[in-house]
Amino acid sequence: MAQQARAAEKEAPEVLSSSLEDYLEAIYELGRSGPARVADIARARGVSMASVCQAMRKLAVQGLVSYRAGEEPCLTHDGLRRAQLVSATHRFLVSFLRDILAVEPSTAEKDACAMEHVLSPDTISHLIAFSQFQGAKTCDGSTLSDAFARSEPTGCATPAAAGRGCRAGAQGPSLAAIRPGDRARIIHLHASCAIRRRLAELGLLPGVEVELVRKAPFGGPVEVAMDGCSISLRRGEAASVEVEPAE
Amino acid sequence: MKPIRVALAGNPNTGKSSIFNRLTGSSVHTGNYSGVTVEVSVCERSCAGMDFEFTDLPGMYSLSGRSGDEAAAASALLASPPDVILDVVDATNLERNLQLTVQLAQTGIPLVIALNMSDSARRDGRMPDTAVLGRLLGARAVPTTARTGEGIEELVLAVARAFESGSPPAFPAFGGEVGGAVSSLASRIPAGRFRGDFIAALLLEGGEAASTYLGRSCPDRADEIRAAAVIEADRLERRAGDRIEVLLASARMGIASGVARESLPLPVSRTTGPALTRRIDDVLLGRFWGLPAFAFVMYAVFWLTFRASAPGERLLHGLLHGLISALSSRLPEGPLPSLLLEGILPGVGGVLLFVPAMAVMFLAIAVMEDTGYMARAAFLTDGFMHRIGLHGRSFIPMLLGFGCTVPAVMATRPLEGRRDRLATILVLPLMSCGARLPVYLLVIGAFFPGARAPALAAIYLTGVLLALLAARLLRRTVLRGEESPFVMELPPYRLPTPAGVARHTWERVKHYLVKAGTVILAFSILLWFACYYPRPPAGHDDPAAAVEHSFAGRIGHFLEPAFRPMGFDWRVVTAMIGAMGSRELFVSQMGILQSLEEGPGQETSLEAAMRARYSPASGMAMMLFILIGAPCVATVAVVRREAGGWRWALAQYAGLTVLAWIVSALAAQAWKLLA
């Protein structure tokens, strides 16, 4: 059973089990008031420290958490985004059930925990639109706001930690694998959030044709030329850019 | 009347600061690499009967950037919306630059586009049609060349006209699913100074600046809208099958490419950067020549520092001694003449002697900054720096540290990772700043006259190596984990203008001249006082004994045992105490002591006196102690501000002082054993 589940996770890295999502949320919530230690997470989730460590290792494999035994786990950029989403959805659902549908608070909390993992993003988006439509009548103006009040982006986002895991995802040849002088077309950016953002801003986007100009000595960065400008990036970063050969 | 508020925005290294300097007549620092400007500068100017307030923003690729300088630019723009946005675009790289223009046009604020570097664009046959560009974006486009001043007056007029008409630029709307998501989120955002679509797109990307703006403009609904943005972004990612940053950047790129295609002349010659830059880089960044060339460039800087500055130094030396001997024969004895002849003149003058050497070194740094070699140095060293745990871009502040540590600490802002940045800041004082140069030159002149350039290169290199070792240690212990991306533009080489290089050199030299006239002067008077009073009892006429009797002599004698391993006597100890305020004061204090002890009429040079008194081992220990020990007051202040707290500044202060003691004591002892 467990093996099957693990195999399934490997095949579809996008799907997180609901328990792992809860762990992300716990790290995020605890992370506001200081570092989230394994013991704190175990207490918050009511599980043993061993299960927390196991979950952290799984999350680390997916690049959502940077975690080494003996250290407090830390959300990566991608992990932070994911946790924010889970947390925002949860807070929204609780306040929706409690304030608009007038469900009893404890039931609202419990149901929200279950609903947040099964409702499609589409449905949630529509629910939000609906609650805004309703909001004028039922909300006292601050309830919904309170629910989201603490969903500000905080936490210890570590861009590179996600970068470490990102290379495994590349399917085709990467920008680091082609030879100086070769031209290639970018297919996909597998990099972590911070690097992906930078590459995209600089115009290294899917569909763009680039030339690998040179590689710096001693495993240093590579220089990539595209229409009108030269950009340097580390080999590890270039390895997360999937390309196809272009003539 | 209130001035027209104009914000200069644009990609890094498009010449915003150069345009700003042209517009306002100010002299903000410029250079040919990304991230020169790290702070927002504001300057007012009247022109054609109107008042303008120009704001120079740090360069940014988009308004949701994460590094310190980019975030500062975005939040400055969002916190106080300007009347007109002046978008400075690199005309030679239109398509990429227009991505930010698209974002700026979406703000709904009147826009003027400066097509900068249009001389290069015309030469390459890539000058866009300003009429077409203006029509498509609903904003006036003015060709400019900041280095020659072309188009600056037209730019001012265009800004004034944009302000008067107040008409927003054309709105470049996104299509498809991205457009749908943006406008659905935008419908929830109440109208304000910025268009809802602009804020919505920023929120989807998770931009901090937009989130803060929302909290200010509609506090009661901000959290609800933020949550909707997170959920909407997730939905969009699932539908479109890519990440939100890539989707939005692709959407902007789509519009930018369309505009660029329409406005560029046909056929567009698709080049991969200027051919000359390519050929130069084949050597300077080549696998075989890259690092040797880099080492050669750095050594040439030290060699030049001696060679080119020697005549100037000799001239100043002659002038100073002529002045002292001329005055000493005419002035009577007493405290006031002594203050002038044995305090101020050797104290301030002794430091001024080394201004020519500083000027040469600053000139070399300015040339490296203006040609575009800085980014290449980062490129060449990143492989090595990365292994140590630093960032290739850390190398740029480190090179600037050869000028002065304070701006170098500021220059760490473009480093995205906080720990990368902290590690760099903490080791920056180990880069020998200009104030240390007089000390090195004095000591090298006294003890190692046969090998001036190699000795100077060696002490600079020692600083660099210690900095790298310290950084590695920091990254392995207190600043573990977290690396930030090294994605950086390599700008084409540009020929520096003599005026530009001269201005940069002068700005830095001026800093030291002003310092010599203020801080060094004040401390020289203080040091002279400490060395002159209390006077010995009447009848004891030996000037040397009088100095030993003074406050400075007593403090020096008291602390001397702690510095015995380095072979420092009480004189050097007091000079080291003086150096805590500012490095040059070491030279000032040694000069003051020398002239007081000798008494009037004697003419031994300071170098000769030092050679007679100390061993070369002690000389080396002096340089090492000055290199490493206690950062100066200005450094402590800037580190406290940039690293965020006294904790780091004080830890750095204590750590470096202890390290200085250990290294200089060990080195002096080792030298003695070997010799």
Characterization of the model:
The complex is a heterodimer of chains A (247) and B (675). By secondary structure, chain A is an alpha+beta fold. Chain A is built from 11 helices and 7 strands. Chain A has helices at residues 2-11, 18-31, 38-45, 49-61, 77-100, 105-118, 121-138, 143-149, 159-166, 193-201, 235-239; strands at residues 65-66, 74-75, 183-189, 209-215, 222-226, 229-233, 241-246. In chain A, a hairpin with a 7-residue loop joins strand 1 (65-66) and strand 2. Chain A is elongated. The N and C termini of chain A lie far apart (48 Å). The model of chain A is unreliable at 1-13 and 134-170 (pLDDT under 50). In chain B, a hairpin with a 2-residue loop joins strand 2 and strand 3 (50-56). The longest helix of chain B has 35 residues, at 498-532. The model of chain B has no long low-confidence stretch (mean pLDDT 86). Chains A and B meet through helix 5, helix 7, helix 8, helix 9 and helix 10 of A and helix 3, helix 10, helix 11, helix 12 and helix 17 of B.
Uncertain runs of chain B: none
User: How far from one another are the termini of chain B?
Assistant: 76 Å
Uncertain runs of chain A are 1-13, 134-170
Residue share in helix of chain A: 40-55%
SSE string of chain A, helix = H, strand = E? Answer: HHHHEEHHHHHEHEEEHE
Q: Shape of chain B from CA axes?
A: elongated
Biggest interface between protein chains, with counts per chain?
Answer: A-B, 71 and 75 residues
Report on the biggest sheet of chain A.
5 strands, antiparallel
Helical coverage of chain B, percent range: 55-70%
> Mean of the pLDDT scores of chain A?
73
Radius of gyration of chain B: 29 Å
The total strand number of chain B stands at: 7
Q: Enumerate the strands of the largest sheet of chain A in spatial order, edge to edge or round the barrel.
A: 6-5-4-3-7
Q: What's the average pLDDT of chain B?
A: 86
Radius of gyration of chain A: 22 Å
